[in-house]
Amino acid sequence: MHGDLDVLPDPDEVATLVERLVRSEWPTSEAQRLEWFTRHGLDVRAAHRAWGEYGSDTVVGEGPERWGSPGLGWHTFEGDFVGVSWFLWRGGPPEAVRAAARQLRELSSGFAGAPVEELTPGEDPDTFTAFWEVEGRTIDMYLHGGHVLEGALVEDPVVQLHVDHTARSRRADEAALQARGRAPPHESA
Length: 189
Prior knowledge:
The chain has 189 residues and is an alpha+beta fold. The chain is built from four helices and ten strands, in the order ααββββαββββββα. 30% of the residues lie in helices and 33% in strands. The longest helix has 19 residues, at 94-112. It is globular.
C-alpha cells in the first residue's frame, strides 16, 4: 500500500519527516528555526506574515518544493517558535487524497501510538481529526472537505497537518482565550 498513491508528497515521506521533527531538539529563536528548517529540508518560498495577535505571529508560504510546494506555515508565541503546519494534497484526486490521509494517520500511529483524540463526523466518514501527544510535541491532523452535495463536490479534500511544541502551543492558546475573556478549558468548572 505504501508509496503507490498518486499524490505528492508520498505519505511515507511526510510521516518520516514528522517523526524526525517530533524527535528533534525543538528550536526556540528565529535563528534556530532557520537552521532547523534547513536541517530538515524545509525550503520555504513566498513566506509572509499572515497575522499576529495575543502574543502570537503566523507566517505562511509554500514548501518544501520537493513536495510540490504545498501551503506551509509556522507559528511563534512571544518570540518562541511553536510549530510548523501544512495543507497537503489540495487539488489532488479526491479518492487519492483520502487514501493518503488514511495512510498518514496509520503511519503516524505507528511511531506516535494511538491518537489521544480522534473524531470522525457522523455525516461524513471521509473526514476525520486525529491528535497525538508524543515527547512534548503534538501532532494535529485534519482531513477536510470532499463533501458531496446533490452529487457535486463542494470542497476538494485537503489534509491540514500541524506539528507543535506542546507547552508553547498551550500557552499561546491560553493567552488567546484569556484575551477574548474566556477561561482556558482546564480552568472551567
